[in-house]
Amino acid sequence: MANSDLTDFYRIQLSNDEFNKLSSFIYKESGIRLPPVKKVMLQCRLQKRLRELNLRSFKEYCDYLFSKDGVDSEIIHMLDVVSTNKTDFFREPTHFDFLNATVLPEFYQSSRGKQFKVWSAGCSSGEEPYTLSIVLSEFAEKNPGFDFSIWATDISTRILQAAANAVYKMDRVEVVPLSLKKKYMLKSKDQVNPTVKMGPNIRNKVRFGRLNFMDDHYSISETFDVVFCRNVLIYFDRETQERVINKLCTKLKPGGYLILGHSESILNMKLPLKQIKPTIYIRI
Ligand SMILES: C[S@@+](CC[C@H](N)C(=O)[O-])C[C@H]1O[C@@H](n2cnc3c(N)ncnc32)[C@H](O)[C@@H]1O
């Protein structure tokens, strides 16, 4: 791109009208609410996409997005751009303590021979399902015959690719105890930009797939012993949250657990759930 083009590119502004159109579309497709204060964020994040498409204004982008050809092919890129993917290994560790102290011993006692199934719903770049895979592998080592599988889904194809790749910068795994890193992660030989890759025994237990919480029915045929749906609902309004959780409950076994993020509340919603601890619910 020539310098003058670059200057033009940085001048591309999103009008209020275009912002309203795009944010209504995003809400309808993903449930993510973008209030007017997010206009500059959306403008900045979409500029890269305009450049990739060789478009010179947001009007051209809206014309493309809302055209017959655009709507199916562009929507995935659009949602990649707007989703917030902040996550960490062992994020909100009390949930993993609860698995170890209550859920896993309970399952091991009552369901010997069955596979323990977990869904990481809104898994972002993989830190949550891989943490689960590590915690469950540790339990399996001490409890013969225990077997498990993990489904991990997200709306963003870009983030799912990163998750399946399973490579992380060294600082991302600082929080993981050294003994677990040594046991379950492979260190790169690159001295300048050191990374780790999840080991095959950790990766093999996790299956990734794209799933949009706005879909009418969730295309997963299994039901789960535990569903982690953490730090996702905060982006939805209350009505959408209630609809999504009701659909998640159809994928939970009776007596199975739903685990939400620490800032998420489902107080006074009509749901087939009983709260047993802050952010932890049991399917009734
Ligand atoms: C902040 S991350 C949370 C990741 C992880 N659960 C955690 O707590 O660390 C939220 C994730 O939800 C995903 N998400 C947002 N809207 C979604 C939707 N409608 N359907 C499925 N996933 C969605 C985003 O792409 C993002 O990766």
Describe the fold and architecture.
It is a single chain. The chain contains eleven helices and ten strands. With 284 residues, the protein is α/β, with parallel strands linked by helices. The protein folds into two domains: 3-81, Chemotaxis Receptor Methyltransferase Cher, domain 1; 94-283, Vaccinia Virus protein VP39 (Rossmann fold, 3-Layer(aba) Sandwich), CATH 3.40.50. The strands form two sheets. Strands 6-2-1-7-8-10-9 form a seven-stranded mixed beta sheet, with helices on one face. Helix 7 links the parallel strand 1 (115-121) and strand 2. The radius of gyration is 21 Å and the shape is globular. The model has no long low-confidence stretch (mean pLDDT 93). The chain binds S-adenosylmethionine. S-adenosylmethionine (SAM) is lined by residues 30-32, 83-87, 91, 122, 124, 128, 154-156, 159, 211-214, 230-232, 235, 261.
Question: For this structure, what is the CATH homologous superfamily of the largest domain?
Answer: Vaccinia Virus protein VP39
Overall shape: it is globular
Q: SSE string, helix = H, strand = E?
A: HHHHHHEHEHEHEEHEEHEEE
Mean pLDDT: 93
Structural class: alpha/beta
Strand order of the largest sheet: 6-2-1-7-8-10-9
How many strands appear in the DSSP assignment?
Answer: 10
User: For this structure, what is the CATH class of the largest domain?
Assistant: Alpha Beta
- Hetero groups bound? S-adenosylmethionine
In helices, the fraction of residues equals 40-55%
N-to-C CA distance: 59 Å
CATH architecture of the largest domain: 3-Layer(aba) Sandwich
Largest sheet descriptor: 7 strands, mixed
CATH topology description of the largest domain = Rossmann fold
- Separate helix tally: 11
Strand content: 15-25%
> How many domains, in number, for the residues?
2
- The low-pLDDT segments are none
Rg estimate, integer Å? 21 Å
